[in-house]
Amino acid sequence: MSDLEEEYQLGYFTENGFTRKECVECGGAFWTRDEGRTTCGEPPCDTYSFIDNPGFDESYTVEEMREAFLSFFEEHGHDRIAPYPVAANRWRDDVLLTQASIYDFQPLVTSGETPPPANPLTISQPCIRMQDIDNVGKTGRHTMAFEMMAHHAFNTREDADDYAYEGEVYWKSKTVEHCDTLLGEMGADLEEVTYIEDPWVGGGNAGPAIEVIYRGLELATLVFMSMEQDPDGEYELKDGNRYSKMDTYVVDTGYGLERWTWMSQGTPTVYEAIYPEMIAFLKDNAGIEYTDEEEAIIHDAARLSGNLDIDDVDDVEAARGDIAAELGVDVERLRTLLEPLEDIYAIADHCRTLAYMLGDEIVPSNVGTGYLARMVLRRTKRLVDNVGVDAPLDELVDMQAKRLSYENRDTIRDVVRTEVERYRETLDRGSRRVEQLAEEYAQEGEPVPSSELVELYDSHGIQPDMVEEIATEHGADVAVPDDFYSLVAQRHNDETETDSESEAGRDSERYAELPATERLYYEDQSRMEFEAMVLEVFEHEDGYDVVLDQTMFYPEGGGQPADHGSISTDEETAEVLDVQQVGDVIVHHTDSNPGKGEFARGQVDANRRRRHMRHHTATHIVGHATRQVLGDHIRQAGAQKSTDSARLDVSHYESVSADELETIERVANEIVTENEAVDQEWVDRNEAEAEHGFDIYQGGIPEGEQIRLIHASEDTQACGGTHVSRTGEVGVIKLLGTERVQDGVVRLTFAAGEAAIEATQRTERLLSETADLFDVSHDEVPETAERFFREWKERGKRIEELKEELAAVRASGGGDGEEVDIEGTPAVIQRLDGDMDELRATANALVEDDSIAVLGSGASGAQFVVAVPDDCPVDAGHVVGELSQRVGGGGGGPADFAQGGGPDAEKVDDALDDAPEILKQALDA
RNA sequence: GGGCUCGUAGAUCAGUGGUAGAUCACUCCCUUGGCAUGGGAGAGGCCCCGGGUUCAAAUCCCGGCGAGUCCA
Predict the structure, then answer these.
(1) What is the 3-state secondary structure (H, E, C) of A851-897?
(2) What is the pLDDT of residues A411-437, one digit of tens each?
């Protein structure tokens, strides 16, 4: 079946007495030393045989196993690399979380554009896979968080050049040899190990791959990434697409740290092997105890469930029935025994996931990785409450963070506490809502419909089972549909398509043939004049695009706006209105044509540029100060500079208080006052990463082997912007304000240098104008404003009172109104040019005296109020309708009190003249 | 980045175009020796902001701001 069969004819196999066989159960091809073997070794063809029968000589903890693995590969010529963050979106924008060790080197290293940090290398990379979150705890082997131990080698073909690494380090046979040797050193019985042929396809790449199985457990996958999708390729693989060989070929291996540890211990589940003390703590805390007989059932069930090929939760539920049957136990009894234990396994795993996430400084939020962290945390909290563990969640997460040796454990605990509190508020809000809803439906005797459930979940974050619980207490039925989550998904399917592509594609083609523009602005960031040759000019709808051989003009990028200025030749001076970078070419957008092939002088608008430089350096300083004041989790989430101010968005889990803002401002200005050097440095990116970590990429990830670092005081950032040469040149930094731009992200707005002075002057002018208005000193403005506001409110109330009094007087004093008799009820018809409030009050007063009130006003347009005493059969709404029609409008209201009006104020009197007639009609009607 | 929900008294919320409400908390009075409590009265609102529609907007529409939530 496999088109790649010849790819597996490895020297190591033939030299070490392996034979290729086909599994009698599944038909898959595999390699083994055991001549008599007939099955491939992988469940369901075979079953776990290491439970209570560890497959290695010694028992290892995860820490010991990690160290054993890494040092083995170090001894075999690999460099040990520190793990990358689990937040993969810090260096690539196509995924959120790190799901495999190879993610660390995609896309730039695997494509050959950037050299790997070492070659070959070994690493133990923390990974998080949310896909099988529902299986965690239930199958005995699924975990959301795990470490993928790996050895990688990056190779290029002999005839290929222009890649960041050259030649072959090692390939398939050597890879298998390393794996086999490691298993041998661990004391595995090599006769029992099988190597299954299983070509790998994913993400546009493919290649032969081998699964390494021992005693039923898949211990490693050895992937030989060497092909890319190509419609004309010579290989057709299992996804139905065609592939062809690439110039680079990469050894991508994955050894599950947790599985190796499990194999070495032979415990019933993986969880008991990797964090036994936490499992013990949780069981004890939740008060879970078993009799010997129960213990035996659980033990057997765990072993059996490991043997089943379980891939989703439905299978787990079905499998439980099979297991119960095999053990001769009632399925409900088995469920009651296992469920609390499953929750505990899941809690331990989720806490470890959170420790990785928060330890790598992900801040919970409603977007991106922050949202995933929040989901995991809330899920964990539910499990903890469900199973009756009463330890605070921050303590549980800390247990795992401690084991993983994170240094920011205080912040982690703080974040967890804040999140738990936030969740509690959401639940409070939710339960109030559900209670109310439940009572409504209970009263009508109807069940809560699934549309309400979807609404509650989607808009308010309330789980259907929680609705069920609360609603039942209030006597309302709830039927949670089986396809609940697909109903929720349906609501999101109406989303609009993405908009069309830009024209950048064509542009970049046009500029591709031009040489890279030499960037003078990096050579001397304070120079503003230069000379250059005009290489090309493209005419445009609204101007010209000019390309020079070298330029001092800074193109828009990294949140710094483009420079302005002029490009002059002897004949022509062109204003530069915008500057953009297209590939390696810098394009100046101008208002006139300097002439292709001309020798030109460039002049950068120095004032504008200097303001940008101050704001750019100030941004680094403020970021650094914020990190010092608020904590190490502070990370840039976006930034924009202008001539007048700059803004910096940072990740933070609560809003910034006024006190904190002042402290940040003080710390930032201390850095300015210390007048330290701001240096730029071009360095090898791998060296930079090794020395400073990923925190240098807060403003985005630049391409290329060399990157530019900016050192401002103790802060180091990869940055392409222009900077002042000493922090003192920033002058002064004035923080203008802070706002929460989204959950988990806070925006700081500030101004530097003369812009700071201007900003201060602006606020002071506002204060002065306000003070002048009140005719008081600056100090007295707040209390004066407060007094004015209070008095304004008091006066409003007094006016209301007076209007009512006036209305009473008008109603009783007869006034100049006409009074007619409608079947024994007196009706007062009166013009009264006041506002609606006055009309209403007067009408009310008249009704108190058992009169019908028909009042009209011409104060702003025409307005009418008609009020009728309780027992009078006149319909006020009808009367108002008739009156309003006569002034070109309309009106209505309840039968005893109606309002209306229209635009024709001059017809108020005419309308009122008709009032007696209308009243009589209304009575007849 | 997108979808949805919500902004009304100090708190929790009613109010679907026609005179801004309830409960708790608050103040005062009464009941009691005191407390829990019970009875009565009162105070407290830029109905988030800005436009629009309308005779009339807390209410409908548009735009902001703020809060929440689901998804990628």
Answers:
(1) CEEEEEECCCCEEEEEECCCCCCCCHHHHHHHHHHCCCCEEECCCCE
(2) 899 999 989 988 998 888 888 888 888
